[in-house]
Design a protein that fits this description.
This protein is an alpha/beta fold. It has twelve helices and nine strands. It has a five-stranded parallel beta sheet with strand order 7-6-5-8-9. A four-stranded parallel beta sheet has the order 2-1-3-4. Helix 3 packs across helix 12 and helix 6 packs across helix 7.
Length: 328
């Protein structure tokens, strides 16, 4: 079999030819076929990662650099693990100890990274649009690992994969995103992906935590959590992103949990088989009750972490190679 694993060459070639983007900067740029191909490839990697040995060799000789201007545990670690499982050389650049902290500009950083001849660059930045700017200045493929409150495409892909593996499909599902929508790049990427794939999206939040004119995206908006959760298939909780807040958005944590924290009383308004998700990190007792978060039958939170590695393996694989490399 080609490239050291057992997927049919026909599928590999179809993936390369159908995914023609040089970078992965957002979900909004992808069509349903491209999303499906990434999810299918990720699904395959999810199964392979459970096998032994899990390490593959299709990216041997390739270099992946993780450049995180914001702190991260799940995303950075999963990108590192994904690259290593594919056999790539992985470099983690600590911004806190780099020349960037000494005043180097983003453009100068791009020139430095170009000199390293990387194949893929995964970037997280606090400013929306910074990753796109960097992608215009480097010669390698760039993956947006989260830029400000704009997008987080790999998170939306892993969320979709988690849902699809549990529910079997995305088409027609009712997915509720609850919490701090205004500051959430996860919410924006999920809205784009879920609607592109035929799901319905509801947003549940106080008015202070909703972006202006959000209804233009075709979502349903609720301020009452019990009403918003009625008949939903998936409940995805979002944390209060206080690091992006300037001013007071909620009266108190206690009051916020009373009205918008997920507990069993509110969850009973959803469908009996509704699943619970959270992109992490969780603030237990703020946006989600501990018992609900740890519900072994309904919570998919730790499955999301597992699917994160598989999705990032698929993205690194697709973006690190020429579209025609797999042609026979």
């Amino acid at each position: 079999m080609a490239r050291g694993y057992s997927a049919p060459l026909m599928m590999e070639t179809r993936t390369r030819l159908a995914f023609r983007h040089r970078h992965l900067l957002g979900i909004e740029d992808l069509d349903p076929d491209e999303i499906t191909l990434l999810l299918d490839l990720s699904d395959d990697y999810a199964e392979r990662s459970r096998e032994r040995p899990a390490k593959l060799d299709m990216l041997r000789g390739r270099t992946c650099i993780n450049l995180f201007f914001e702190s991260s545990t799940r995303t950075r670690t999963s990108f590192e693990l994904a690259g290593k499982r594919l056999g790539a050389d992985v470099i983690n650049i600590s911004v806190a100890a780099s020349a960037i902290k000494k005043g180097e500009t983003l453009i100068d950083t791009a020139m430095t990274l170009n000199a390293m001849h990387a194949d893929v660059l995964a970037v997280r930045h606090s400013s929306a649009g910074a990753v796109k700017l960097l992608s215009e200045k480097v010669n390698c493929a760039v993956i947006n690992a989260g830029d400000g409150s704009h997008e987080h495409p790999t998170q939306a892909l892993l969320d979709a994969l988690t849902i699809r593996r549990r529910k079997g499909h995305l088409q027609g599902l009712l997915v509720c995103l609850c919490g701090d929508i205004a500051h959430s790049r996860v919410a924006r990427s999920n809205i784009h992906l879920l609607q592109t794939m035929g799901a319905r999206v509801r947003l549940i939040a106080p008015p202070t935590l909703l972006p202006p004119q959000i209804e233009r995206l075709g979502v349903e908006v609720f301020h009452d959590m019990r009403a918003g959760l009625t008949d939903c298939d998936v409940v995805m909780m979002l944390r209060l992103q206080r690091e992006r807040m300037q001013g007071s958005f909620v009266p108190s944590v206690r009051e916020y949990f009373h009205f918008y924290g997920l507990d069993y009383d509110k969850l009973q308004h959803a469908k009996p088989d509704a699943v619970i998700m959270h992109p992490g990190p969780m603030n237990r007792g703020v946006e989600i009750d501990t018992a609900v978060a740890d519900d072994i039958d309904r919570s998919l939170i730790y499955q999301q972490v597992e699917m994160g590695v598989a999705v990032r393996m698929a993205c690194l694989d697709v973006l690190s190679r020429d579209p025609f490399e797999s042609n026979p």
